[in-house]
């Protein structure tokens, strides 16, 4: 018999500020890197998104009806500090006061991400994360959040998917185009973000001894393309560079040897001082949050062996072949199905990932993203029959339950996303929510909210504490 979900398990759902709020320049908000980025033709921008900024009361009421125990959202740094630092915008603070009060009034536990991709543009103009001064600016912003909201917020996340910002630096990161030796600069940015995170964790523990804080990387288990030892070695390398580099720094304050050697051989080593390493060691997370969508499969790139050029999932941006010891190339996995956007669907990989993280770090875990992006259709009577999403989530929840049965201390699950919002690169057409938001890419319609079939399903999952 599989163990039930623990009492007080935090069933939740997630969003991020720039993807859901809209009101991109209202009430004193400064622009972020997202507001300045150019996106593909044909998809919407981030000016209105789901208009949550003006409709949050209605949305939180729906979350309460859904039965959420926790709601994960992010604070837009440039609402609080329009220039990144300097003047504090009281209207921005007041908005998050109202939002958090509303969440708490419904008995939902707020889970707050300090920084989810939307670096204030004014900081980016001063070098962004390439500039060591941004570390201190982030610490100040974090202090403001802890001091203002810490009376109501117990769970904090530092930085969303820092590893993806580095691994896909040209797309989602904060690297100005044309930066010379871009990869080295990305690893320097990574080091600075790690310092910012460590300082935020130290500060959180000082100011809010009851609160808990942790990192929120995207972690995927990594499979070897075959049982050939070189392929297994390649998978081991990729795990070290894609996953453990970030968590080893966050938890233990050290660079793992494989990742360090990789950066050294490629000429990517960040400048690091002993004093900084001491700060990294002093900053300790209380838990690890992780986002999981799919696994990754890699192999060795042996001389004379050409791999087929079909687009590879999860590893596509890594052109790291050719160095002794740290070589790997992405391969496809014939054992897995894919979603409408080509992403692999791998529920068992979810269980493996949870076990791996727990075994490696021995800290409580919470899942802060997992979900299925799909083109939903609004049918007659404003119904959305998203059985495919229910299937995806059910399979992943089953594997989570097995992971708990395996002994993993997992205390929450927050699928992406609470309601429909704008995907980072694929517009509003790629939907993840339990609640449909009535708009198209360029036609805002009435932005009405409709409960999808998955809403009623997840409501039952939560009500029965996981017996879905
Ligand atoms: C994660 C991000 C989210 C969200 C999600 C879905 O990487 O933290 O912000 O965007 O992925 O990705 P996408 O919108 O590209 O489908």
From TrEMBL:
Alphabetized InterPro entries for the sequence: GH, GH_1_N_CS, Glyco_hydro_1, Glyco_hydro_1_AS
Gene Ontology cellular component terms for the protein in this record: cytosol
Record-level GO BP terms: carbohydrate catabolic process
One Pfam match: Glyco_hydro_1
Active site (record annotation): 369
This protein's UniProt keywords: Glycosidase, Hydrolase
GO MF: beta-glucosidase activity
PANTHER family: 6-PHOSPHO-BETA-GLUCOSIDASE ASCB-RELATED, GLYCOSYL HYDROLASE
Family of this protein: Belongs to the glycosyl hydrolase 1 family.
Protein name per UniProt: 6-phospho-beta-glucosidase
Native organism: Paramixta manurensis
């Amino acid at each position: 018999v599989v163990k039930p979900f623990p009492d007080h398990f935090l069933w939740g759902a997630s969003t991020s500020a720039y993807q859901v709020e809209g009101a991109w320049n209202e009430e004193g908000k400064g622009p972020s890197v997202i507001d300045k980025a150019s996106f593909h033709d044909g998809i919407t921008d981030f000016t209105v998104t789901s208009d949550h900024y003006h409709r949050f009361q209605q949305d939180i009421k729906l979350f309460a009806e859904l039965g959420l125990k926790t709601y994960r959202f992010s604070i837009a740094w440039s609402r609080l500090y329009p220039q990144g630092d300097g003047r504090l915008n009281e209207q921005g603070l007041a908005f998050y006061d109202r939002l958090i009060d509303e969440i708490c009034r419904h008995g939902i536990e707020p889970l707050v991400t300090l920084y989810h991709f939307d670096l204030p543009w004014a900081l980016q103009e001063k070098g962004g994360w390439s500039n060591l001064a941004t570390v201190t600016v982030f610490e100040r912003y974090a202090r403001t959040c802890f001091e203002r909201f810490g009376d109501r917020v117990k769970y904090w996340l530092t930085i969303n998917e820092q590893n993806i910002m580095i691994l896909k630096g040209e797309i989602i990161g904060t690297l100005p185009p044309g930066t010379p030796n871009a990869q080295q600069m990305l690893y320097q940015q990574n080091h600075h973000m790690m310092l910012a995170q460590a300082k935020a964790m130290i500060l959180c523990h000082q100011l809010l001894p009851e609160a808990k804080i942790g990192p929120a990387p995207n972690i995927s288990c990594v499979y070897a393309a075959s049982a050939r030892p070189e392929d297994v070695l390649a998978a081991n390398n990729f795990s070290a560079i894609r996953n453990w580099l970030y968590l080893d720094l966050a938890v233990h304050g050290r660079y793992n040897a494989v990742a360090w050697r990789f950066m050294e051989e490629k000429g990517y080593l960040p400048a690091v001082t002993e004093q900084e390493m001491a700060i990294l060691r002093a900053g300790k997370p209380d838990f690890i949050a992780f986002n999981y969508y799919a696994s990754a499969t890699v192999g060795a790139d042996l001389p004379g062996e050409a791999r087929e050029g079909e687009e590879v999932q999860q590893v596509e941006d890594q052109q790291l072949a050719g160095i002794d010891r740290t070589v790997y190339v992405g391969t496809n996995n014939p054992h897995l199905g894919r979603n409408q956007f080509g992403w692999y669907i791998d529920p068992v990989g979810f269980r493996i990932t949870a076990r791996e993280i727990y075994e490696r770090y021995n800290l409580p875990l919470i899942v802060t993203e997992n979900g299925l992006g799909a083109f939903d259709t609004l049918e007659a009577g404003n119904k959305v029959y998203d059985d495919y999403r229910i299937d995806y989530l059910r399979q992943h929840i089953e594997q989570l339950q097995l992971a708990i049965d395996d002994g993993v201390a997992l205390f929450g699950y927050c699928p992406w996303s609470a309601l429909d919002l704008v995907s980072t690169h694929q517009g509003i057409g790629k939907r993840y929510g339990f609640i449909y938001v009535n708009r198209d890419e360029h036609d805002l319609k009435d932005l009405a909210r409709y409960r999808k079939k998955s809403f009623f399903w997840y409501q039952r999952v939560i009500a029965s504490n996981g017996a879905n």
